[in-house]
Amino acid sequence: MGTVSLRLNDRDDALIRKYAEIHNQDLSSFIRETVLERIEQDYDLALFDRVWEETKEDERVSHEQVKKALGL
Question: What are the residue boundaries of the structural domains of the chain, listed by start?
Fold first, then answer.
């Protein structure tokens, strides 16, 4: 298991520790989950951008058009 050291000023340290405490998480779990969520969000955005570029020439249909076609 790896160990990561993080340098923070006193204000940031207190804020992060208090936030984790309020959410009933130990500091290590909170930081790990937060970092992994950020990586997942960035990956999702990169994937969306790639798909958008690959399909930008495809015909788009609005919600209103779909509802009308379905008789809703």
Answer: 10-69
Summarised one tens digit per residue, pLDDT across range 17-47 is: 999 999 999 999 999 999 999 999 999 999 9
d(CA 71, CA 12): 54
Say how far apart CA 25 and CA 4 lie, in whole Å. Answer: 18
Residue 56's pLDDT band (boundaries 50, 70, 90)? Answer: confident
| Residue 60 backbone dihedrals phi, psi, to 5 degrees | -105, 145
Nearest 10 degrees: CA dihedral of 25, 6, 43, 29? Answer: -20
Report the candidate in 11, 10, 6 with the shortest Cα–Cα distance to residue 30: 6
